[in-house]
Amino acid sequence: MxxxxxxxxxxxxxxxxxxxxxxxxxxxxxxxxxxAPNDGLREPWRFIFVDHRNADRMVxxxxxxxxxxxxxxxxEADRYKREEDFAAVSCLMQNLELLAPEKGxxxxxxxxxxxxxxxxxxxxxxxxxxxxxGVLELGYAEQVPGRPAADSRxxxxxxxx
Amino acid sequence: MSLAELIRERRSIRxxxxxxxxEELVVELLQTAVQxxxxxxxxxxxxxxxxxxxxxxxxxxxxxxxxxxxxxxxLIPDKMLEVFKKRFMDIPAxxxxxxxxxxxxxxxxxxxxxxxxxxxxxxLLGWERGLGMLWDTEAMIQNEGLFQGIGMRADERFVGILxxxxxxxxxxxRKRTPAEKKWTVFQG
Lengths: 161, 188
Fold this sequence. Notes:
Chain B: InterPro entries: NAD(P)H_nitroreductase (IPR052530), Nitroreductase (IPR029479), Nitroreductase-like (IPR000415), YdjA-like (IPR026021). Chain B: Keywords: Flavoprotein, FMN, NAD, NADP, Oxidoreductase. Chain B: It comes from Paenibacillus albidus. Chain B: This is Nitroreductase. Chain B: Residues 7-166 form the Nitroreductase domain. The complex is a heterodimer. Chain A has four helices and five strands. Chain A is an alpha+beta fold. Chain A starts with a helix and ends with a strand. In chain A, strands 1-2-4-3 form a four-stranded antiparallel β-sheet, with helices on one face. By secondary structure, chain B is of the alpha+beta class. The interface between A and B is large, with 66 and 67 residues. β5 of chain A pairs parallel with β1 (45-50) of chain B.
């Protein structure tokens, strides 16, 4: 299927079925997603999977979901590398979001205030030299009546130099 | 080609051929790239496009004026700067991408991540149409000359310059570390 056609498909809000997400499925998708462009092949990402047995630990931090994937990146001292790494990890998460619907998986990508709470992040195993780049709320997607794709093209600020 | 194949087979392209790139195609792909990000509504960002020989030359001049006046730049032989400039100007199209910063650091990070995600969509959509790209974030090009030349504002953040063109040969991919090796299951 052409990626360009995917844009024409209806997208609704992601709702989750109350059903565990197997880690094998997430790993399978991640092994495609890691082909994101990343400078110097630093592969600056690491993954912490919080499955249904521990999903309650996210109460107050995240919306309820059957599973969570905390995507962390190593913090480079160099400011340019830091930005490149955040860009690379963002591309990886985007890859994952593109792939997920084929497997019936829904993803809500979040970046919440608690990424700055080092102690809280630490309880999930985020190290002192790492930052949370995104927390993905995961679950099998409930069939949501799709809304038709917008007729109008999205606004794009495109200026000529 | 499946989506997984598209993601795995896309390469960063450093060597372009001289086939011109249609501005309309770039706009179309950028619009589709935005549509592919469900949370893209309201994300502040913009693109500055250099797709004509004149605008490419201007962009190269902006970038190089600071470089050639810097202490480090003075050590670079003029000849090398000329080669750099020519290579840059020979690339059919450049898209300079800026993200809005937002009211606080968290909002800025969110915007930046959203714009990066749009650019990944853009690269994949381009690949589907035979277009190659290089997302350039080289520290050397991120200088005042460039920022002033393109009119970057204080509430904007530089995301990169995407060099865009058709290519004759895609480089081989470099193997990725299996996700299993970067994987931890939280044990509570």
